[in-house]
Amino acid sequence: MTAPTLLIRDLRLSFKGYSGLVEVLHGISLHIDKGERVALVGESGSGKSVTARIILGLLQTMRTARISGTVNFEGRDLEAMSRAERHRLRGTKMSMIFQDPTSSLNPVYRISEQFHEVLKRMVPGIGRAEADRKAAAMLADVSITEPERVLASYPFQLSGGMNQRVMIAMALANEPSLLIADEPGTALDVTVQAQTLKLMRELVTRHNTAVLFISHNLGVVREFADRIYVIYKGRIVEHGKATQLFDNPRHPYTRALMNAIPRITGEGIPKIQDNSDEYLAPLVVHEGCGEPGEVA
Amino acid sequence: MKRTLAILASNPLSAVGVLLIALVVLSAVFADFIAPFPEHRGAVVDFVNFNKPPQWPYIFGTDLVGRDMFSRIIYAYRISLILGVVVLAIAVPIGVTIGLVAGYVGGWTEYVLMRITDVFLSIPPLVLAMSMMGLLEPTLTNGMIAVTAMWWPWYTRLVYNLARSEKEEGYVLAAEVIGASKLHVMFREILPNCVPSILTKMTLDLGFVILIASSLSFLGLGVQPPTPDLGSMVAEGAKYLPDSWWLTVFPGLAILIAVFGFNLLGDALREILGVEQ
Amino acid sequence: MLIFAIARVIPGDPARIALGPNATAEQVENLRLRLHLDQPLSVQYGHFIADLAQGDLGVSLYTNRPVTQDIAQFLPATLELIIVAGLMMILIGLPLGVISARYRGSWADSTIRIFTLLGVSAPSFVWAVILMLLFAYFLPLFPIAGRLADSMTVPTVTGFLLIDTLLAGNIKAFGNAAWHLVLPAFALALSGIGQAARLTRSNMVETYDKPYIEMAESYGFPEGRIARRYAFRPSLIPSLTIIGLDFAAMLGNAFLVEAVFAWPGLSRYGVAVILRKDLNAIVGTVLIISALFLIVNIVVDFLIAMINPRIRLSQRAQ
């Protein structure tokens, strides 16, 4: 069996603040196999986004952050790598998609220049014309009908949905083995978000890209993910295949999250408790979903 | 409050700022008790002790007619601070009101008010104050008038921009919907939200008013002798460089310390109140 | 118009002030006629505008020459000083701000922040005096005053010594003129350097929190490239506005520095005429400075439009 694309074991993170150390992640473990789509679901402040940033190595530069635990990428320990080695993975073997596509693109450069920048990560000497040709092909892949016009535009001239497609195209341009999507398209209209997510799913399936999908919305995740981790206050509370989890949510917090998905049934907004001691119940692992190397 | 203290503690520079300002303000307020030669603020002559380098009891030396530089600097601080406070006390309400009205009411009112403001902003500030001073008699009162005239437009600009963005905010719309009067919306809803920015700017400006006022008097267009003034002391002393260096260096440093202190304080305030530049 | 208004509402009879207390009533009356001071204000304003349109600013009562001629003589020296100081501001201030922002929290950042804050905390005449004392008297590295050594003469073509010396092919004089420029220009530039650096830093720090920076980091773009293309360039737009204002402020501060370094420029002329209440000359000087101020602002707006695609494209569309 080959090593999983991503393997996180007992990851802890704390920040040094005015009033001492504050632990944000209390030892989380998760893994993603090659080409697998995994979701990490939890409310804001539960520690999902910091996890993504640790994987990319963006948080390590913060002087107030204290990190322990292991993060293995394709069998290699990221913490053991040199800074330069780690840096080389970014944008080539892993890439990331952000919440708000329009503000995540540099406002003072055209799309084509930004695409060129991304492609240079893989082929440092790539020329502008060659990059434009590749970019146009990538944009066509995300169902953009006039790639040339989009390439010649600035981000503020494009719609949010269009920018989202551009971001997806950029993220997959270098054929990474891991794509991290942090609340993709939350800033967009629901219909546009649904369209772009569908597109993204088709593309990652075709390219066999592993995805870590971070979201607060179980409803969005249902369509997308093979497996789901539910995170609450820096701890994984439930873990299972998407079908298992949706058919039979076992952890009280998961059930509460499940209730929070709005439905068109005329029942109004469901009542859920903001906080409950029950939510602190221990981790529930569904059948066949143990972490590699652990007894399930 | 806890956060305020934490920010002050984590940034020793802010503490230095507080200290410097406390020093300047206290010495100005209690000048009569601190200055070793209080009578030297006026037209006193002591030819026995003229032009002495720093030595006891003249720690900053004496000027060309034998007056103690240290005493004169302390009294000059008093004048500078009074000038700064008066200028801001007049310029800020004027500028803020005009900016608030122009930004909130809009239309013709906005056009006329902002064009007038632009006229004032179209002349370099120091040049505007200078030409006004040149045409008026150089007295403390006229100095205040000239500096006030160049200062209010900046507050108009600041508040105008703030008011224009605040008026789109939900809380303003909410007040309008329930039928609040324009005056209420301007002064009760929008103004309180501009206070942090105005306060920060005022702290910084207290330093800059002192700076500009000293520049005017440096050119001979401000407070006239024998009233002690930092700017005219530097100008007077500059004629006797490098030999009588204490005549320029100490008043110059005095300006630097006061303005530096207000700048540090303003920066700290900006951080505490979360104001963007 | 404001200038005109200020100049005319002041108390006192300008003609009498100009001629001094010993002038006869007849002399005063003649001068009043010549300056149209006997007519109503609206007519005076009409004359003023009409003369202005013909490039006539009247005669200086102080030098007894046309004001335009006086300005033409003194302006180049001031412009030379301001332009050099402006270059220093940009070439020193911006890089300091970039370094400070890129290594924020480091000792380099703290040092730069203290120095730049000191820079804005003293009027330029204080810096002028301090620099003069340190680098002209104690360490005699630079000349104390003036624009050129007395032993050298260069034919006046443009009035800009740096250009005139080159036109004359006199490299030695060029070096000497440049050497004379260093201290006054630096004294004038100091507060601008501080202002530019502080603003660039705070804008860049703010930009560093933008999502597109995180995106650039997530793609592993080189750090220097992120600093340059992703943090610096977008934050240059607000910085430029302030740099324009600072540049304009130098027009005023030049008055202070010229006084210290005995620089024969427009500002010294301005102070002289202000002290003598020489109306035409004051109006002319303020007018030319305001015009320069306006030009600087137009240039800045143009530059901003150039680097901000949003403005550039909306203008092209019109």
Automatic annotation (TrEMBL), chain A:
It is found in: Cell inner membrane. Residues 8-258 form the ABC transporter domain. InterPro entries: AAA+_ATPase (IPR003593), ABC_Ni/Peptide_Import (IPR050388), ABC_transporter-like_ATP-bd (IPR003439), Oligopep_ABC_C (IPR013563), P-loop_NTPase (IPR027417). Its main location: membrane. Keywords: ATP-binding, Cell membrane, Membrane, Nucleotide-binding, Transport. It is a peripheral membrane protein. One of its GO terms (molecular function) is ATP binding. PANTHER family: DIPEPTIDE TRANSPORT ATP-BINDING PROTEIN DPPD (PTHR43297:SF2), OLIGOPEPTIDE TRANSPORT ATP-BINDING PROTEIN APPD (PTHR43297). Belongs to the ABC transporter superfamily. This is ABC transporter ATP-binding protein.
TrEMBL record, chain B:
The keyword Transmembrane applies. Keywords: Cell membrane, Membrane, Peptide transport, Protein transport, Transmembrane, Transmembrane helix, Transport. Gene3D superfamilies: MetI-like. The chain crosses the membrane at residues 79-105, 126-151, 203-224, 244-265. It is a multi-pass membrane protein. Its main location: membrane. It holds the Pfam family BPD_transp_1. It comes from the Bacteria. Residues 77-266 form the ABC transmembrane type-1 domain. It is found in: Cell membrane. The keyword Transmembrane helix applies. Belongs to the binding-protein-dependent transport system permease family. This is ABC transporter permease. It comes from Chelativorans intermedius.
